[in-house]
Amino acid sequence: MARLARLYAPDIPQLIQARFVEPLAQPVDPSPVEPLNQLAVWLRECAHEQHVNVHGWVLLYDRMVLLATPSSRTGIARLMQAIGRRFTSRLSSGRVFEGRYRSALLQPEHWVLPALVWLDILPVQHGYVEQAESWPWSSACYHTGLNLKPHTWANEHPDYWQLGNTPFDRQAVYRKRLAHGLDTSQRQRLEAALFGQWALGDEHFLQAIGAHATRRVAPAPRGRPRKHPKNTSHTNPD
Question: Which of 130, 172, 204, 211 is deepest in the core (most CB within 10 A)?
């Protein structure tokens, strides 16, 4: 099967996931502090070098997940390549990532905040910590204003700014969102878009993206195409 072409649209955020060929540790092992710290530093440096605005990020033992807006069509690919090169030279040998990274385009004002919550609570869902802000290798610390570490950072998306007038207001509202989590439908739609490498948004957004895309931006409807009935009407002679 041919590879899907990457979807890209100017100023549209993307949810990205790349799995490591070899996990940094097993779930029952102590946190691999040094590799995670180093990866966090590389992520920030490489994002700056490749002009990619990272709005949310999390490093797990087996993957890296980002919510980011690249300034160019190749920005995300170059970011992942840059991290992979540093990873190979310092922490690993051979291939770093398991196959191609997956990505999905997200409609602003609809799916950015749900995606941010989805990735920030991954350490909780995987049993690493009980509260998202307790995991130092993610943007949850930054967005909640709690347990800040030197390498916790993010480039805030405008949707995050809409949560409140002050940093304290935004952090308080976001903490409530993290505590509440996502409903099943939101989570399933995000994961389906990421796994399928689709765009996620309303019909107007999909049409706008599709007008410039080189491939389909959303999965085709299930089932066979609807058949149009034949016109059997006729005109009786006078």
Answer: 172
Domain membership of residue 232 (yes or no) is no
Closest of 77, 73, 74, 75 to residue 18, by C-alpha: 77
Residue 168 domain-assigned (yes or no)? yes
Q: Give the range of the structural domain holding residue 158, as residue numbers without chain letter.
A: 14-206
Side by side, the strands of the sheet bearing 199-200 are 52-59, 63-70, 14-19, 102-106, 199-200
Q: How many CB atoms lie within 10 A of CB 181?
A: 16
The DSSP secondary structure of 155-198, one letter per residue, reads ---HHHHTT-SSHHHHHHHHHHHHHH---HHHHHHHHHHHHHT-
Tell me whether residue 5 is in a domain. Answer: no
Q: What percent of the chain has pLDDT over 70?
A: 87
pLDDT for 151? 75
Q: Average the pLDDT over 92-96 and give the result.
A: 73
What's the mean pLDDT in 22-33? 87
Count of domains observed in the chain: 1
For residues 199 and 193, give the distance between their C-alpha atoms in angstroms, rounded to a whole number. 6
Tell me: pLDDT of 30 over 80.
yes
Residues near 41 by Cβ (< 8 Å), separated by ≥ 6? 151
Residues β-bridged to residue 54: 68
* pLDDT value for 95: 80
Residues constituting the chain: 238
- What mean pLDDT, rounded, does the chain reach? 87
* Cα dihedral across residues 107, 113, 119, 124: positive or negative: negative
* Cα dihedral 182/101/221/107 (nearest 10): 50
